[in-house]
Write a structure and sequence with these properties.
The complex is a heterodimer of chains A (about 120) and B (about 110). By secondary structure, chain A is mainly β. Chain A is built from no helices and 11 strands. By secondary structure, chain B is an all-beta fold. Chain B is globular. Classes of the chains: A mainly beta (about 120), B mainly beta (about 110).
């Protein structure tokens, strides 16, 4: 069974840092692209970041570019999101999502999410 | 960046109804369009990918159509478990933008 379990969500101060992790199991993690998607309270979904299967290709939403860094450890079946210079507007539930489909890229499995609250 | 809009933003329907939700991209995305369902407090669930392909395990009452810039999600014969929020997402080029969502309520 495919499972994605996020952790690391917490209360952080503006300007602070957090590191989110996503532990994957039940599939060959090293051949899948992975993503982070977030959802602010009562709002819609916002794609945050992507990392290729080998980790060499990454992409970010403009809203987090230069502040967030995605990485992965295929030996440990995990993907991480280092979040620096946090802002109030980064408050959200953060989901990791597996991407499938080759060119027709879609997110077929999601974790349960981890809550990040940025507040003084 | 490619902008994605959805209409309506909300709608009310009854069990057994047929409903259609529309998604429009700001430029052609060929058929790189996915649909997700989300219930309160839960992670999104993939329904349709590549515009028309039904994800494994998703009931056949869900269908997708469209290409280019205009797409639709149709739910034939609504069931009680279908009342949720629906999002489209373009996967043509990053950022992989989501639409703002369509909330489907029970009438």
């Amino acid at each position: 069974e495919v499972q994605l379990v996020e952790s690391g969500g917490n209360l952080a101060q503006p300007g602070g840092s957090l590191r989110l992790s996503c532990a994957a199991s039940g599939f060959s993690f090293g051949i899948y692209r992975m993503n982070w998607v977030r959802q602010a309270p009562g709002k819609g979904l916002e794609w945050v970041s992507y990392i290729s299967s080998g980790g060499s290709d990454v992409s970010y939403a403009d809203s987090v570019k230069g502040r967030f860094t995605i990485s992965r450890d295929n030996a440990k079946n995990s993907v991480s999101l280092q979040m620096n210079s946090l802002r109030d507007e980064d408050t959200a539930v953060y989901y990791c999502a597996r991407a499938s489909g080759g060119n027709f890229y879609h997110f077929d499995y999601w974790g349960q999410g981890t809550l990040v609250t940025v507040s003084s | 960046d490619i902008q994605v809009t959805q209409s309506p933003s909300s709608l009310s329907a009854s069990v057994g109804d047929r409903v259609t939700i529309t998604c429009r991209a700001s430029q052609t995305i060929i058929t790189y369009l996915n649909w997700y369902q989300q219930k309160p407090g839960r992670a999104p669930k993939l329904l349709i990918y590549a515009g028309t392909s039904l994800q494994s395990g998703v009931p056949s009452r869900f269908s997708g159509s469209g290409s280019g810039t205009d797409f639709t999600l149709t739910i034939r014969s609504l069931q009680p478990e279908d009342f949720a929020t629906y999002y489209c997402q373009q996967s043509y080029i990053p950022p992989f933008t989501f639409g703002p969502g369509t909330r489907l309520d029970i009438k």
